[in-house]
Protein 1
Amino acid sequence: MLIRSWDRGDENEWRAWLAEGRDFGLLAANGGAGEGPVLVPTHFLLDAERGEILLHLAAPNPLLAAVRADPQVTLAVTDGYAFAPGHWRGAPGTPTSYYASVHFHCTAEVVESATGKAEILNRQLAHFQPETPEVRVVPGEGELARQLPGLRGLRLSVNEVRAKFKYDDKKPAEAQYAIADRLAERADGRGRGRDQYAAARAQLLRRHRRRTAGPGTAPEGATIPSDTTPRTDHPRGADRRTDHPRAAD
């Protein structure tokens, strides 16, 4: 994912964004020789303090075989996307896409033991189904335990986090506010993708407020990074140029 200097998200920002309830993403593993990547849409549980992500899959899922062959995987979470026509953005009239996307580059471990799988499932249940604390998995007991052989857990150790919030942050305030009005029009029902246009507008305005508040200002609800948090620095070769953003960024 190309990340330019003006749309890079820092750790406080991506943590707060995910904490709003974004816990569904696309997990990608490397396929075999001559094959493309293996992709699985999935719910996940992020434990940022431990630097790990937990999830489970059905035992026949082809992603598990890919992980056993190569444990390096990427989990991508994307939201708040909208198409911005060129005439919204002023000269030279280049259309673009707005979106927020966080990529976790991880090393995956397949969890095979009943105890390990039960631990992952119970942590997921506590997160996704907190209203039923009595529903938990105990190996060797009950119907849920009988389903354990058909499942595999995945524990992803996070090596790097790359976050991008692409909402025309290079543009002056008046241009951003005008684009926000356009997004509001589509969100009000005069176009397609109403929910996403509303989400994109909210992100554009949030980014603008954050940028104009001054350096080092954390968004509302952000947490202080801990020493165990995955690093969010950028790999060698990350694009740091400041030329005009292209439509395909």
Note: The radius of gyration is 20 Å.
Protein 2
Amino acid sequence: MAVHEHPHGSSGFHLPTFRRHRTASASGSAVAADTAPAYALASLRLLTGFVFLWAFLDKTFGFGYATQSGKGWVDGGSPTKGFLSGVSAGPMESTFHEWAGAAWADWLFMLGLLGIGLALVAGVAMRFAALAGTAMMALMWIAEWPPAQHLSDGSPSMSTNPFADYHLVYAIALIVLAATAAGDTLGLGRLWARLPFVRDHGWLR
């Protein structure tokens, strides 16, 4: 009897363990599935932040990419003059020409790039960064004015799409990152949210 009971006892012992193992595996898979989107959004946040930070650094020091060496902001160059003075289509063409090279425009633009970039990389003040970044992207979209097929001098604009361009993609990305609290993963978002002045002013979240 003892010999016949041993397999039954052994089987009765291992069955619950097997079920627990399957439950743990299923739970782990669910956690991994929930975590994957958070890390994907965090990666998008970091890359987008780097885009803004790099633009600030290149325009400040003239690394030879978008800004030629020796023509950086620290060298006396204007971060806005080249772009805004080259606007040649759209309803704000003359307005942008007036703004080109103005000290206040340079400072606002550069502080915007720096602030948005730092906020995204750190994962803090995501709502404010999204608001400021969307406003900046909207102005740059108007400056390039994709709907135009021809420039003010009559030459082809070479626009590839009358509406959607990378400025709108960045704007939507910023809104998504803020709406999903993407700063909480691989960022300081949770710590930032616990600060008293942030708790009292939700728009700073």
Note: The first helix runs from residue 2 to 61.
Protein 3
Amino acid sequence: MDPSTHAFDPEHALDGVRTVVASTDPESGRPRGLWSDESVARGLAGHFGVWAYGWLGAAQECPDSGSVITSLPPSGLGARDLEAQAQRYTGALVQWRAWLEELAGAFARLAPDVDADAEDARRRRERGVAPLVALVVERTQAGELWLGPCAQALGWFFECTGMSTEDAEDLADEVVDAHFENWIAPGQEALDRARSAGGGHGA
């Protein structure tokens, strides 16, 4: 998911998305854009790189959903307008890429150096929790589904501090499930508990 490993020009994304949307879904034999979001996501991942699949779980048409991507028109799947579908999927893809780049910038500021010792990595992990949660809250407005993006962002960050993927995901889920709630932006007390939990791994 690291955007630095996949070049992407949002100004020219529409042409690639048009190609994917009009391409044939291998299971149905129909154009991907007239078949399913899942088929389009697989096609976009093949065309742009694996990162491009991630928008699928991050997009909701409802602006208050708490998802990372909300400024999308109704899907209209089944409509025979491939251009409208291409425009919609391009919007989702560009927003998803912008979110990945925003997270990557935060990770660069918050993560330990590659040669940091275990204690420095632990401290960095602890200090990184609150600003990352704030970033997710700002993006999602702490709506109904905000805990998913929060756990995902924290898991990726924990991995940047030297944890294995499995341990990072487990710790992120533990932090989010134990200390945060749907529809509620966490206050200072909840953030302090989450920081302690994040920094407690490896202590």
Note: The two ends are 28 Å apart (CA to CA).
